TrEMBL record:
Domain ATPase dynein-related AAA: 103-241
Organism field: Streptomyces ochraceiscleroticus
PANTHER family: MAGNESIUM-CHELATASE SUBUNIT CHLD, MOXR FAMILY PROTEIN
UniProt xrefs under SUPFAM superfamilies: P-loop containing nucleoside triphosphate hydrolases
Annotated protein name in UniProt: AAA family ATPase
Length: 385
């Protein structure tokens, strides 16, 4: 793979328009890869990093953790936090990648598993794109290898006809591969990873050959067991991973901080102006989601029924981002209850019968009686009618 070194500040060469600035008429990536969006931070860390680095790592484990958790370098460079949560979780994840154990990031939807996975790969290997996206239809070839059938028919099995998977490429180049939503992949396809993770080889029986992983190779997988349609990991496969559980934000303030940071990042990429006085609505969205998720009001006095959805931090980010877009394009630019009400309704009411009852009870028994929430109550009632 042709990729520039992080040390030179150029990222990996794929998203330079997004990093360097927009030129007139130039296409800009909608969502730059982590190594492109944060190329300056990665370059500053590489320049200041004098600690031992595992073979083929772009940064030391200490610098990788600093990249994810944030900090200020000796030269004054500010590293923005990519993950807000317990430091020990990040340290364990980074340490796992420095060993020969694969890393499994486990948690309910919305706990930043994919986000952490991408940034770990960007910091360790300088490339977060060696990715297998797990779905119910993911074939074995997506993990092992496929074939260029024109060459296969013309010349028979050969290395030229073989199409390497992202995992095979990571093994050959000593880089970090990612498998997203591992539990969405059929069980027999999941088990393709067992030989790769235990023997560090990928047999190619058609050629009588194998690909051996070189030092620096490792794999990060993400999984959750909350969604419907998941496939449990076999005991044999789970043993090949070191599992790190990513928790939901511990406090409302922590979750508000996460939502605010991500909405700001997404808003900049979409050319949405910062929403003045938007913090009040962000805090309301987070409060509603946490109370319904926990089945208890924040003061601990009222028990609530919980809807069928997860009401994750990621969904809160989506609701606020959509509200910001509404306020920008169809309002006065100020984020108001009417901008987030429809998004909250869509996130809460997944089952039209059961969830609507839960939502109506919450509106009437909690929101209606809460001081300073009258405008929010009216907006929610309007979209819920």
């Amino acid at each position: 793979m042709d990729c520039a070194r992080v040390e030179n500040g150029a990222g990996n060469g794929r998203g330079t328009a997004a990093v360097a600035g927009r030129q007139d008429g130039e296409a800009v990536a909608l969502r730059p890869h982590a190594e492109d969006a944060f190329a300056k931070e990665l370059a500053a860390l590489a320049a200041a990093d004098d600690r031992p680095r595992p073979e083929r790592w772009r940064l030391s484990p200490w610098a990788v953790a600093t990249y994810l958790l944030g900090g200020t370098l000796a030269d004054g460079t500010v590293i923005t936090p990519k993950y807000v949560g317990p430091r020990r979780i990040v340290e364990v994840a980074v340490t796992t990648l420095a060993t020969d154990r694969a890393l499994l990031l486990l948690g309910v939807p919305g706990t930043a598993k994919t986000w952490v996975s991408e940034h770990l790969a960007a910091a360790v290997s300088g490339d977060s794109t060696l990715l297998v996206q797990g779905t119910a239809g993911t074939p074995e070839e997506a993990i092992r290898y496929g074939w260029n059938y024109a060459r296969l028919l013309a010349h028979g099995p050969s290395r030229d006809a073989l199409v390497p998977s992202p995992v095979m490429r990571a093994m050959a180049e000593g880089m970090t591969a990612r498998v997203e939503e591992l539990t969405r992949i059929p069980a027999d396809v999941q088990d393709t990873l067992i030989t790769i993770l235990s023997e560090k080889t990928l047999p190619i029986p058609e050629l009588g050959q194998e690909v051996q992983a070189v030092r620096g190779f490792n794999l990060i997988a993400t999984a959750n067991d909350r969604d419907r349609g998941v496939n449990e990991l076999s005991s044999a496969l789970r043993r090949r991973f070191n599992t790190v559980v990513l928790p939901l934000p511990a406090t409302p303030d922590e979750e508000v901080d996460i939502v605010t940071r991500r909405v700001d990042q997404i808003g900049r990429s979409l050319d949405l102006p910062p929403a003045p006085d938007g913090m009040a609505e962000i805090r309301r969205v987070v409060t509603v989601f946490r109370e319904l998720r926990d089945g208890l009001t924040t003061d601990g006095r009222t028990k609530l029924k919980s809807p069928s959805g997860t009401l994750s931090t990621a969904e809160a980010i989506s609701v606020v981002t959509n509200g910001l877009a509404l306020a920008t394009h169809f309002g006065d630019g100020v984020l108001r209850p009417s901008d987030v009400a429809a998004g909250i309704l869509g996130a809460v009411v997944r089952d039209p019968a059961a969830d609507r009852v839960v939502w109506q009870e919450y509106l009437e028994s909690v929101v209606r009686e809460r001081d300073g929430w009258k405008d929010f109550y009216r907006a929610c009632r309007e979209v819920s009618a």
